[in-house]
Specification:
Chain lengths: 760, 175
């Protein structure tokens, strides 16, 4: 019983042995089969053996028929897998040869950073690969196993610096597409007896492919391509906004990148059709990258692009097209908002500049995004900022009437003049209606292409403010006209009527008519009794408050006025002239003992010098008394200064002014030249809207003070409702809040839990 | 030269005369009170002030009077209430001290005031402002002949004692 296992084992061994023998001997007589197998094994093994390519001795001649027969024998014996294992084993032993050469090349590369060594290495390694490759007749399994083993080995021995070198080499290939002269080392890669390849870089690419480098380094290849494109775009497009670059870039892509792409991405293509379908995916990825790069670039430049508008419309059209592919609208908005905050919306910027830039932004973003969502998002902070600036309205109004001084008006003269447009309700019955873009916020209002002026005016809630400011501006301009030519103003008013509507500008009409009526009245009065005085008669109720202040014209000036007033009264018995003593100009000829001086001056100056015809020496206080005026002494001193500059008066000691009946030696020569004879009052005659506003707020403040004194603490709501006792109160609660906040900053009131009280 | 007719008539003066009308419409009273309020607000009389209690009723006002400097009441602030009758200004408003005021002509409990112009000497030409000014001067110059507070009238001549009493009753306003 003890022998049983042994017996079993022997039996097993015997049966295995005979099976193996039978397989190798192939049922031939004796052991001839075995012998022929042995011979075939040797031939086959010898044939496959990976030889040292550097070995100069020629490889033993091979009779391909013998080899084939040998492989047939082995196949019959089912020994091919074993042979394959053996071969791979041999290969493993011989790999040090390749490793050695790779190291030499890599050392050279590390020393020089010249990518040609990488190229040479690739070509050389391919030679090894080809040299060792088993013939394809032996079937796919062996070839695949060989390639896998070979590549695995290569990857394992490539040093880290290879990645860098490979990248440099890839970068070089871009130049090869069109490079007329290929670097010498590159041409030397092709053996001399071969015909030169159609493309200098094709041997390289096929080498990369053979070694599987393209698959292994796929992301590297594409990133090299991306970087190459980026570099090109940055180089060609930065600060070039005048023309559309996108078309040029795409052409460049077709001419340069697409041919290049064929190598890494469409080598296997047999015809153009196939190549196209292979390149489609990667091509559209690259095109996306082009758009993204350009968008990034233009986004970073957007503020300057807008500054350059309209010379930068090319860039804007590009941006529009790119944004349709790349979803970077929010980045654009953020960048622009940031740039605006940093470069535009600060105290150092002129309101006019802000407005100009705002108008440019409107125009530019309309190109980029016609529905206006981007504009809405960007414009909001600008509009809020402009609303807080005191002179915004004035700037807009000045540009409305085409203030000559600035030259470049905000408004394009070619733009047709249209009535102001109000926010429109959505017209859903419009067949061309489109929904709001998806990134539109809830408060977004489709701003249908309305004109610039409408947009500017809509910064404010009502157009009444504009009309008021217009009035002030018109008053200033009308009063400044001395030659009686009001045509320009009339034209302006007509233009503005189209915008603001007839009724809004009725007051301006009246003002204008006052001027022409005055002229007629004056002509009539002059006809009755010629006078040197030409009065402008205005209807007080239709004019903005004018600079007031009282003083009596002395001497002959007074007579002049009284005579004129009398004539006027005869002409219009129901009217009485109420002089505005500060306004107007006087042309004076001052006759002195030795000279006559002509000057054109404001009334106060004239009044002063008139008094000097009574006596030669005056003090400021006496002058004020004589004129029964309520003006500040500084105004008198200023008026006297004008005459001192003209060499007519002289300041003699403290507060005493003396008339120079004869010119002082040496004094007269240079003085008049330092200042023009006509002095212009810097202060505009019309009380500005701001001053009116301030005066009004002063009244409201009195009321607030009164209610807080008597009623103790009050909430903002209560103050607002109590202010209805104040005549003309028309502010909303936000404005009141702002006002109270300002009062708090001045230390007039305090607030606690929303309750306001007076600071005592 | 032909006559030119004026094309623009100045807007008619909006102010209607307030006094001298016998018809007492609430509207004209309101108008009068509004204009008095405006005058009071714009005048800068130191130490006197008044304002309607609420925006709904123009006939009830609250006033503030600071004691005139140089008198016993200097530095003290008193609240008063002013009620206008419907036939104001033909009848005097009812005025009383809200904060307790120790004064010969003021009832310490009810706050009622004995002042001739508020009773038989009233005239339509007086206004809130003149009343407040009169009250302010009354603080420093009481009419001891017709006292509402005889104790106060009695000790008026001893300022030390009087001041003590004033301060005993005085309640500062927590405004």
């Amino acid at each position: 019983m003890n022998f049983q296992p042994h017996e079993k084992l022997s039996k097993h061994v015997v049966s295995k042995w005979s099976a193996s023998f039978g397989r190798l001997n192939r049922e031939q007589t004796g052991i001839t089969g075995l012998l022929s197998f042995s011979e075939a094994w040797t031939i086959a093994r010898d044939f496959l053996y990976p030889r040292d390519l550097t070995d100069a001795s020629p490889p033993p001649p091979k009779k391909i028929r013998d080899v084939k027969a040998a492989f047939d024998v082995l196949a019959q014996c089912k020994m091919l897998p074993v042979l394959m294992e053996d071969f791979l084993e041999d290969m493993h032993k011989q790999q040090y040869l390749v490793t050695r050469e790779i190291k030499i090349f890599m050392d050279k590369y590390d020393a020089t950073s010249d990518p040609q060594y990488i190229a040479k290495m690739a070509i050389r390694v391919v030679e090894w690969y080809k040299g060792w490759s088993p013939p394809s007749e032996l079937g796919g399994t062996l070839a695949a196993a060989y390639t896998l083993n070979f590549q695995t080995h290569i990857y394992s021995v490539l040093p880290p610096s290879f990645t860098r070198g490979f990248k440099a080499l890839l970068n070089l290939t871009f130049n090869l597409v069109h490079m007329a002269s290929v670097p010498e080392w590159m041409s030397s890669l092709v053996p001399a007896n071969h015909p030169p390849p159609a493309r200098a870089d094709s041997p390289l690419w096929s080498a990369f492919d053979k070694l599987g480098l393209l698959d292994r380094y796929e992301s590297l290849v594409s990133s090299v391509c991306y970087e190459y494109i980026e570099a090109y775009i940055l180089e060609t497009c930065t600060k070039r906004w005048d023309e559309s670059m996108l078309v040029a870039i795409r052409e460049w892509m077709t001419d340069n990148i697409v041919p290049w792409m064929i190598m890494p991405y469409a080598r296997g293509a047999r015809n153009a059709e196939e190549a196209r379908s292979m390149l489609q995916g990667v091509g559209s990825r690259l095109d996306f990258h082009v758009c993204k790069t350009l968008t990034d670039l233009r986004t970073s430049e957007i503020f300057d692009i807008i500054v350059d508008y309209p010379d930068s419309s090319g860039a804007l059209h590009d941006l529009k097209e790119c944004l349709q592919r790349v979803d970077q609208r929010s980045q654009l908005v953020q960048t622009l908002r940031k740039a605006n905050n940093k470069r535009l919306l600060h105290p150092g910027a002129d309101t006019k500049d802000i407005l100009t830039q705002y108008v440019s932004i409107i125009r530019c973003l309309r190109i980029v995004d016609p529905p206006g969502v981007l504009l809405y998002k960007v414009a909001d902070p600008i509009r809020r900022y402009l609303r807080d600036r005191p002179d915004t309205i004035r700037c807009i109004v000045a540009s409305l009437v085409g203030d000559g001084e600035s030259g470049d008006s905000l408004v394009d003269d070619n733009e047709p003049i249209q009535p102001l447009q109000q926010q429109q309700e959505e017209d859903y019955s419009d067949p061309n209606w489109e929904p709001e873009p998806i990134d539109a916020g809830p408060e977004f209002r489709t701003n249908k292409p309305s004109d610039i002026i409408s947009t500017l005016v809509s910064i404010y809630d009502s157009k009444e403010l504009f009309v008021k400011e217009l009035q002030v501006l018109l008053a200033q301009r009308l009063l400044a006209i001395t030659d009686g030519n009001y045509e320009k103003e009339r034209r302006n008013i007509e233009i503005l009527k189209i915008r603001f509507g007839e009724s809004a500008l009725q007051v301006c009409e009246v003002m204008l008519r006052d001027m022409t009526d005055s002229k007629r009245t004056d002509t009539h009065i002059q006809a009755q009794k010629s006078s040197n005085l030409h009065a402008t008669v205005i209807s007080k109720h239709f004019w903005p408050p004018l600079q007031s202040g009282k003083f009596q014209m002395p001497g002959q000036l007074k007579e002049l006025r009284e005579k004129y007033a009398k004539e006027f009264h005869l002409f219009k018995p129901d009217k009485k002239l109420n002089w505005l003593p500060h306004l107007g100009t006087l042309k004076l000829d001052i006759e002195l003992d030795d000279r006559t001086i002509s000057a054109e001056v404001p009334p106060l100056e004239a009044a002063c010098i008139e008094l000097f015809s009574q006596k030669d020496e005056w003090s400021v206080k006496e002058l004020i008394e004589q004129m029964a005026g309520s003006m500040e002494s500084t105004a008198i001193i200023k008026a006297l200064g004008t005459w001192i500059d003209l060499g007519i008066l002289k300041e003699e000691g403290e507060d005493v002014y003396r008339l120079l009946n004869t010119a002082e030696e040496g004094d007269q020569g240079h003085r008049p030249s330092t200042r023009p004879a006509m002095t212009i009052d810097e202060e505009p005659p019309v009380t500005s809207l701001q001053q009116q506003e301030a005066a009004q707020m002063q009244v409201f403040w009195k009321f607030i003070e009164g209610m807080l004194t008597n009623l103790g603490t009050l909430s903002l709501d209560r103050i607002q409702s109590m202010l209805k006792f104040a005549p003309g109160y028309d502010r909303n609660i936000e404005q009141l809040g702002g006002f109270m906040e300002a009062a708090r900053r001045e230390g007039l009131v305090t607030v606690k839990d929303g309750m306001w009280k007076l600071q005592r | 030269m032909e006559q030119i007719t004026p094309t623009i008539a100045p807007p008619r003066a909006a102010k209607a005369p307030v006094t001298g009308q016998t018809t007492e419409s609430l509207g004209s009273v309101t108008k009068r009170l509004s204009s008095e309020l405006m005058t009071l607000m714009m005048s800068s009389s130191p130490g006197i002030s008044a304002f309607p209690k609420s925006d709904a009723n123009l006939f009830e006002w609250v006033g503030t009077i600071e004691g005139p400097s140089g008198t016993i009441y200097a530095g003290l602030t008193y609240k008063i209430s002013i009620n206008f009758p419907a036939n104001y200004p033909y009848a005097a408003p009812t005025i009383k001290f809200d904060s307790p005021c120790y004064h010969p002509n003021v009832d310490i409990n009810s706050g009622a005031i004995c002042l001739d112009i508020l009773q038989d000497k009233w005239s339509a030409v007086y206004s809130v402002q003149t009343i407040l000014l009169s009250l302010q001067s009354l603080l420093g110059e009481p009419n001891n002949a017709s006292p509402l507070n005889p104790d106060a009238a009695r000790i008026w001549d001893t300022p030390q004692e009087f001041k003590t009493q004033v301060m005993r009753y005085y309640r500062p306003i927590d405004a």
